[in-house]
Amino acid sequence: MELIKHAASVIIGFASGLVVAGAVYAFITIVGVVPRLAQKTGTKHRIKVYESALALGGIFGTVAGIVSFYIPIGPVGIVILGLANGIFVGCLAMSLAEVLNVIPIFTRRARLQRGLFFLVLAIALGKLAGALLYFLVPGFFDTGNM
Fold first, then answer.
1. 8 A C-beta contact, residue 37 and residue 89
2. pLDDT score of 97
């Protein structure tokens, strides 16, 4: 019975990770960070390099979150990684700001005029409930309580 519980946990965790990773990369694709960055820097011929770096960074970040290891990079390496992270977040934020005009177009094409309020409200209430549970109920999101 314990083996079934562990197997189910592995399957659910793997499936959840696939869904979250797919959503993150779909979001990055929809926002258009890579093509916009290549256009602004005049390096359209290097889009494959950008895409590969993004995918490898996601894989490395996932492995780093699961496996505990140490790479001695020193203070200079920390500054370089922090700068790279800041550049990525800045590019993502600017791309999101440019794409915000897509939301009204999407709602018109999907004919969500009547239910849009409830959709946004449901998302906000779900985030509120998750935040309250996380901060007010110690240990709620530990694996033993799921």
1. no
2. 66
